[in-house]
Amino acid sequence: MATRTDPYRQLRFILEIGGLVTSGFSRCDLPSATSAVVEYREGVDPPTPRKLPGLNEYGPLVLEVGVTDRSLELSEWRTLVEQGKMAEARRDAAVVLLDATGNPAARWVFREAWPSRYDAPRLDAMTSEVAVERLVVVHEGFARIAVETGDDEDEESESDGGTESDGSSTPSLPDLDFPVGEGLPQGIDEPRLKTSRAGDEGPDET
């Protein structure tokens, strides 16, 4: 009998944004990744154009959160962009979907993320709804990566190779300082995303 695998529900998730404390959001719209289609045909080809991949395009990450003292960080993040301080504004980020027990189940990482738009909440004295602010975050590529398991965590604790640990009870940002790869659908060098994992497997084989 095949093992049953149920899909994860969307209601529990956390966000990790480099340099920001805020990680709880009421809504998170993950982006899409598409490649433009370039049509080309030569006279000797069949009467159908070739489909060649063009530029990779990534939609924005849209975040919504209730207004609190801690959410002030989001507005300040946007202010860095308005002041032209892009070196400080660009952050690595990750969205982590949690399972029913609160453990990491799926993970998407983003590189060179910065807020392109900030929407203040709409206030209405005749309603009792929560005041919600909205942030639109653009980036230069994202990918879904494997979530580190407890076994990987045990192996990391046993090895003393000096490699930083990605797997823990509270997920931490991986090393996103990777170059743009050639020929990859999302322009991301995925082996570099798993550098720490490869570093742990190496000592075990020797």
- CATH class equals Mainly Beta
- Largest sheet entry: 7 strands, antiparallel
Helical content stands at 10-25%
Which spans have pLDDT < 50 for at least 5 consecutive residues? 156-174, 176-200
What count of domains describes the coordinates? 1
Number of helices: 5
Number of beta-strand segments:
9
What structural class do the secondary elements suggest? alpha+beta
What CATH architecture do you see? Roll
What proportion strand?
Answer: 25-35%
> What name is given to the CATH topology?
Pnp Oxidase, Chain A
C-alpha-based Rg, rounded = 21 Å
Rounded average pLDDT: 77
Protein traits:
206 residues; alpha+beta; 5 helices; extended
